[in-house]
Amino acid sequence: MKGNKTREESDILKEIKRNTTREKEVIQALEKRDGLTWEEDGVVYMDGRIYVPNNKKIKEEILKENHNSVDVGYLGQHRMLELLKRTYWWPGLKEDVKRYVQECIKCQQNKVQHQKKAGELYPLEIPQGLWQKISIDIIRPLPKSNGMDAIVIIVDRFMKMICLKATMTNVLLEGIAKIYRDDI
Ligand SMILES: [Zn+2]
User: pTM for the complete prediction?
Assistant: First the structure.
């Protein structure tokens, strides 16, 4: 696998050398001659990193190679950016990494699978639409009224709707689940 990777990298380097379109800021940085940006063998180095010309095909190839790592699988945008930044640079690199990860179909599928698994842990059936993201709070103790001495507040975090319900201090989680089921 290692040999494979080296071959791909040199292919990318060849493509970079072949492509001579350079952004204005790169040309300006070269003209400065401050030692931070230099050209060598048709490749521009910026702060020691290889500048990738504005070519969609080359960028996509580099993104692909740095997203799906042989050793650890698909990288999230932060780790992918860290890895990429060691070797390459281009204007808008960060945004391109973010977009690439967000649009990756494999990663989206993985996410859905993880969410399904997490959902299976909770026996309480979650209704569709409203009341999907809730926070539950209990105010207690309150002066007793009809045997009730506490109030359960269930807030829908998305729509900011509130459900109040009088209850007893010794209410258990099951009791809250019942209120949630019966009253919402
Ligand atoms: Zn992915």
Answer: 0.57
